[in-house]
Amino acid sequence: MNDLQTKIGLALTILSGLIILKSWIKRSRQGPPKIKKLIIYPIKSLQGFEVDHLDIVSTGVEWMNFHDRSMVLVNQKNIMLTQRNKPKLALIKLKLQDKNIVLDAPEMETLEIPYFDDNLITNDIVSLEIWGQQTEGYVCRKEFSDWFSRYLDSETKLLRIGPELQHRQSQVFDNLLDNHVVYQDGFPIMLINDCSIDDLNHRLNGNLLVDYRNFRPNILVENADPYDEDNWKNIRINSLEFSMPKPCDRCVMTTVDPEKGIQHPDKEPLKTLKSYRIDKKWNEKAPLFGINLIPKSNGKIFINDQLEII
């Protein structure tokens, strides 16, 4: 190991220690858990957009009528594209501006997608499969799909959901609420505990630092002990109630570096998560990190809202 590698390793170790100290100080002052960040992902597997509030609806979350994961990319065979098979999607910067989704990517011109324009989509409807369930999407106009084709260097189509198209049913456990989703993997909403991320970084021992972007939650909370969220069967936020059907299974997507758009060579943090976060009750192979939520009613939640565990 050369001097530069030694210095980098030392710096990461010190930074990891500072994160753990910060987490301990936070918890020593903590009141009830509260919302630290709110994030929406209008296009599945692209970067999220941080907002000050979210509208809770039966199929997930919205902000200014942009719906979470309401657009998705597929290849020429209508197979879904995500960071699992196209990790460079992580590098596409996304903003919500006026009525447009604004995208920027390395060596690409800016793309503005008129999200609410009826002319965004064609009359072509394609079927695709998401985790064994069939759903549908309108094919967007060629100029929008072509932008992704050039960036990914392979034929790509951008799809948008329509209200009359087939929506998938949420996975249902223990007779909890029967909801539907758009292009989310399995459930309408996902929550991550910031202190669980701190604990994971401590276990990574300076070899890697992860943040919420590796896990892509809609709700990031603070002021909770690590993994305490595993026990939150029902929660209330700003008078709205949510059921927790199951923790969130984790896959290779967590290993994509959000700054570089490549998978970690040692499959971290997934490798470390597998060493202590396997629960055979839910999944014998995939580790658990974060929780899925099903809303019981519609309304709004805001940054700094407190969580009540009920």
Can you summarize the main beta sheet?
9 strands, mixed
Number of domains: 2
Number of distinct helices = 4
Multimeric state: single chain
Mean pLDDT figure: 92
Number of strands: 23
Order of helices and strands: HEEEEEEEEEEEEHEEEEHEEEEHEEE
What is the share of helical residues? 10-25%
Counting helices, strands and paired strands, the structural category is: alpha+beta
Task: Tell me the fraction of residues in β-strands, as a range.
Answer: 25-35%
Shape: globular
Identify low-pLDDT runs.
Answer: none
Overall description:
- The chain has 310 residues and is α+β, with helices and mostly antiparallel strands.
- The protein folds into two domains: 3-37 and 188-297, no CATH class; 39-169, no CATH class.
- The protein is built from four helices and 23 strands.
- It has helices spanning 3-28, 142-152, 194-204, 270-276, and strands at residues 34-40, 49-51, 53-57, 60-63, 66-67, 71-75, 80-81, 93-97, 100-104, 111-114, 121-130, 133-140, 156-160, 168-169, 180-181, 189-193, 219-222, 234-237, 240-243, 247-249, 288-295, 299-302, 307-309.
- A hairpin with a 2-residue loop joins strand 3 (53-57) and strand 4 (60-63).
- Helix 1 (3-28) runs antiparallel to helix 3.
- The N and C termini lie far apart (52 Å).
